[in-house]
Fold this protein.
Amino acid sequence: MAVEAGGGSAIASALGATADVAIPTAAEPADHEPWRQYLAWQRWGMLTVILLVTVSNYLDTFVITVLLEPIKQEFHVSDTSLGLLSGLCFSLFYAAAAIPFARWADYGNRRTVLVVALAGWSAMTALCGVARSFATLAAARFGVGAAASGGLPPAQSLIADYFPPEQRGTPIGLLNAALNVGLFLGVGLGGLIASADGWRSAMIWLGAPGLLLALIARLTLAEPRTVGGVTASVHAAESLVQSATLLRRKPSFVFALISISVYCIFAYGASTFMPSFMVRTLHASLREASTVWGAVILVANVLGSLIGGWLGDRLSRRDKRWYGWIPAITCLLGAGLYWAAFSAMSFWQFIGIEFFAETVLGIGFPPVYSGVHAVCGSRRRGLAIGLLFLAMMLCGNSIGPLVVGVFSDLLTGTHGDASLRYSLIALTFIMLPAAVGFWASGRTLLNDEED
């Protein structure tokens, strides 16, 4: 019996284990249908806690976006430096920690993974608020990125064990909605606090509550793998190389991985600089850019996520290839809508188009995750989701903001404050190859299914 006590030895064994692990008889039913251990109210209660943790994850990740302008003014840095701060500084350490966290989630106690990660990103966000130089601020963002990578793999893996397959679309849709609630709160509350008391206070006040939430999560979440108080391996362990190789042999997963990575170059690049675009190019106030825009993307993304979860469940009953085809369609529509949004000449015109664009793109994400769960296999679920978010961060959060910042700086001499507009418009083209990849993922999904 392999026992996981929540420490580093569990991570190490998960990364390198190749031998079969003894399976406790009592754990076998839970392994096959773990959701049968819980009543409906228990599932939804634990889902609520996971949603709150997810809100915290994206709140602490994206609060930096609405604070870029005051940070620029205090430290006198370029847009390229801001792109590095919000993107590469975060994603490099996210990438370094993502696979260890994902493997820990696959073979250890996922509740422990979630609690440790939550406490980490919350503490590091608060520390950003006391940074006295741009370099120390960047170092604190390294810490936020490393801890944030441990949030979504165990969260999605637990949801997949709390709910039966035919009911997962809606919880995953709610999880995606929670991401956007976190984005809204990071942008909205961050902007309000920064307007009243400076950007440092925003970091401290939005980071510290996560430490209390970590305690709540520890006391309320259940680990379906736990038998008699001991977390035991519920299946023969695979090495990291074995698991990665099996995932690589599934074309639907590979296409989804590449497509969401390409799409996120747009998503992260655009979302990072949208507050600056509204303030600098459309002459909105910081309060308007945070509260009005934040409220609009919250409603749009929650609506889109709920529609996407419901639509994915409904259409997949007829043909699971829709898990890939839905995001393909939303990427095509979203590219055109965002072209129009970035071409808007007033703040309110931009806000109106932005609502429809965000709603359409929000529909596409829940089916992507449901499709990955359908093909990755239960023993590779954490790794699959971890790889997905690792690729999103490495390609999206590293490349997207940096590309927008560099092009904006290059165009400043000829276009002035409008340089950011043209940089963002050019970025919309990246969604076209993403759409092709999602369509290919859907076409190959049926051959790759695995429980």
In short: Strands lie at 226-227, 230-231.
